[in-house]
Design a protein that fits this description.
heterodimer; A: mainly alpha; MetI-like fold; 2 domains; B: alpha+beta; Rossmann fold; 6-stranded mixed beta sheet; 6-stranded antiparallel beta sheet; 21 strands; elongated; binds adenosine-5'-triphosphate; binds magnesium ion
């Protein structure tokens, strides 16, 4: 077999696999978007309806604005408006993620430069995060009720901050490891204190990495369901909790409404991703950054 | 003002003894060059002076004050790193300004000082660029400027030129020399390039596996090397070194090896007999057709360089025996021709089996 032919075959195989993967990965997303624009008769239609006809905004108006004229009795959902949940989710996710990244970076600095934690300790830290949340959620809810943290915004921020801190430490440490010692030492001998070196030299240098870490943890927090479900009741329901209320309620399966809500949950993350995409490419390939 | 004293300085990394019992005083305003092969502890010594490494034992004094426990930023030193270590996210102007900002110098004065230093280093056109847009030579100038602006008492330079090409190196080398003359500051310069050491230094410190081998002016080091190691390290082309033995009774003393057998000058009479290495620099080997001399060798290769001609002789070893002849007199010699060589008796060195110099001719 000639070289160019074998290369063609490899290319064909590669693109076939990638195409299949892309279809598998994107179809649910397509289905979600498509369903959100369907009228109620097409939600369960068989054969399936691929393109909403006619497309309608009623699902969005009903779910997000609680527009009464669209709240046909059959599908009325008796819960708070999702805009409040959106606000809750935004505050909880961004605050806890920001805290995790900032504290994580500072701890990671200590680990990278002063070895405040050994390799084994670092690994144990990550192991902690690998415990399935369902295992600890029951005792946790007992603590929370005793401490009065149940169904409070602070309680959720705290638990997300704590559970994501290990990720933040691990990820930011790998970026800090890449910063040459000499650059820090140059700052030091030019008169910078340790903190000024961290905030003026190290953190700006790894900002792409920080942004990547931020997005990674934001996604985890934004879509976290179990802890939010158990540790909140009604005051601070987050979007995933809100979304679940559309499933298996007495009103039946309201797919169109649910899809409209799901799109609304996905879009903010996509916007964040788009805004910081320049950093993402660099952040996830930090090792290749020119020194 | 800065007089730097290193007293019994030691540094170990685990079981590796990187620096062993270093003792030296560097006077104020002196240009001292630490030189030695890779891994001999130059950087470690410099980093201990800067405060980035804690000595395992020993003392560092600056102007008589022990600074072992002082943070790098409180030692009043400036350092230029081999990798330049510019801040990649700051413009050149911000890089230079950094040290002033850390010392809370007010903004108008900072701008003024940055401009002055940039002019001094000929980098005003770079001020708005980012480090990634600068060439190696430009980066090095910026690194010097960044240190210069803080007005340190001493400049520590760790192989600042090693990443540059030959021409730039010479250019920046001259710049370093000029800078030191203008500023009259103490300079401690680390390099493994003997030529850099010879041209820049007031005093050279030759290091070898963590120890100081010899300290002296470039001329001392060149003409009175205390050991085989130093003799071999300095000079280009390097010194001819031939292994053999010193033989003879009380009256005559000769050097003998497979290809050499000649009478040594008078002052070696009392030297120890036995295994030894004979050394002579290429420019101290006299060449003539026929005539008087110590030995006759066949020419292997002739290399006319214009001002001088290099003659490579076959002495039975891998490393040719080299002689430098002035002008092009010898340029037409064919390889294989036998030429008589004479050795300047005052410039002839012997090293014992341990590489120590025998019968150092201090009387000359
Ligand atoms: N941080 C360290 N940990 C362990 N060993 C080290 C460390 N730094 C230096 N060494 C060892 O100490 C010895 C001296 O190193 P040093 O960097 O001072 O050499 P150098 O003279 O600067 O060499 P070069 O010309 O290659 O820069 C070497 O054997 C090196 O391996
Ligand atoms: Mg070094």
């Amino acid at each position: 077999m000639t070289k160019s032919r074998s290369r063609r075959i490899t290319a064909i195989i590669r693109y076939t696999v990638l195409t299949i993967w892309a279809i598998v990965a994107f179809f649910p997303i397509y289905w979600m978007i498509s369903t959100s624009f369907k009228i109620d008769t097409q939600w369960f239609a068989w054969p399936p309806v691929y393109f909403p006809d006619p497309p309608t905004l009623s699902n969005y108006l009903n779910v997000w604005l609680g527009a009464q004229e669209y709240a046909s009795t059959q599908y009325a959902i008796s819960s708070q408006t999702p805009l409040v949940s959106l606000l809750n989710s935004t505050i909880i996710a961004t605050t806890s993620t920001l805290l995790a990244v900032v504290f994580g970076a500072v701890i990671a600095y200590g680990v990278s430069r002063y070895k405040i934690l050994s390799e084994a300790r670092m690994f144990q830290l990550l192991m902690l995060r690998m415990i399935p949340p369902i295992v600890v959620v029951a005792p946790l809810s007992l603590y929370y009720s005793a401490l009065g943290l149940l169904d409070t915004m602070f309680g959720l921020i705290l638990i997300y901050f704590l559970t994501n801190l290990p990720y933040a430490v691990w990820m930011t440490k790998s970026f800090i490891d890449e910063v040459p010692r000499e650059i820090e030492q140059a700052a030091e001998i030019l008169g910078a204190s340790r903190w000024r070196t961290i905030f003026e030299v190290v953190l700006p240098l790894i900002r792409s990495g920080l942004v990547a870490t931020f997005l990674f943890i934001l996604i985890l927090t934004w879509s976290e369901y179990l802890l939010a479900l158990i540790l909140s009741k009604t005051n601070v329901a987050t979007l995933p909790v809100e979304l679940s209320k559309y499933q298996g309620t007495t009103e039946g399966k309201v797919y169109g409404r649910q899809a409209a809500l799901a799109v609304g949950i996905t879009v903010p993350l996509m916007i964040v991703g788009l805004i910081i995409r320049k950093h993402l490419a660099r952040g996830f390939s930090f090792g290749m950054v020119r020194r | 003002m800065a007089r730097i004293e290193l007293c019994d300085l030691n540094k170990s990394f685990g079981s590796v003894r990187a620096v062993k019992d270093i003792n030296i005083t560097i006077e104020d305003g002196e240009f001292v060059v630490f030189v030695g092969p890779s891994g001999c502890g130059k950087t470690t010594t410099l980093r201990m002076i800067a405060g980035f490494e804690d000595p395992t034992s020993g003392e560092i004094r600056i102007d008589g004050r022990i600074v072992n426990d002082l943070e790098p930023r409180d030692r009043g030193l400036g350092m230029v790193f081999q990798s330049h270590a510019l801040f990649p996210h700051k413009s050149i102007a911000q890089n230079i300004e950094f040290g002033l900002r850390m010392k809370d110098v007010p903004a108008p004065e900072r701008i003024q000082r940055v401009r002055e230093v940039a002019e001094m280093m000929h980098i005003t056109h770079l001020l708005d660029k980012m480090p990634a847009q600068c060439s190696g030579g430009e980066s090095q100038r910026v690194a010097l400027a960044r240190t210069l602006v803080t007005n340190p008492s001493t400049f520590l330079l760790d192989e600042p030129l090693s990443s540059l090409d030959a021409k730039l190196r010479r250019e920046l080398r001259a710049e370093c020399g000029r800078l030191q003359e203008e500023l009259k500051r103490t300079f401690i310069f680390v390099t493994h390039d003997q030529e850099e050491a010879m041209t820049l230094a007031d005093r050279i410190v030759v290091m070898r596996s963590g120890e100081i081998e010899q300290v002296g002016s470039p001329m001392d080091i060149y003409s009175e090397p205390i050991s085989y190691f130093v003799a071999d390290f300095f000079g280009s082309p390097s010194m001819n070194l031939v292994a053999g033995e010193v033989v003879g009774d009380t009256d005559v003393v000769r050097f003998r090896s497979t290809h050499f057998d000649f009478a040594l000058p008078e002052h070696f009479k009392k030297s120890k007999r036995g295994a030894a290495t004979f050394g002579i620099r290429p420019e101290h080997v006299g060449v003539a057709f026929g005539g008087k001399g110590e030995i006759e060798l066949p020419v292997r290769l002739v290399e006319p360089l214009g001002k001088d001609t290099l003659l490579y002789f076959d002495d039975g070893t891998e490393r040719a025996f080299i002689a430098v002849s002035e002008g092009l007199e010898m340029a037409d010699v064919k390889s294989g021709a036998r030429i008589t060589l004479s050795f300047d008796p005052r410039r002839l060195y012997l090293f014992d089996a341990d590489g120590r110099r025998i019968g150092a001719a201090t009387q000359f």
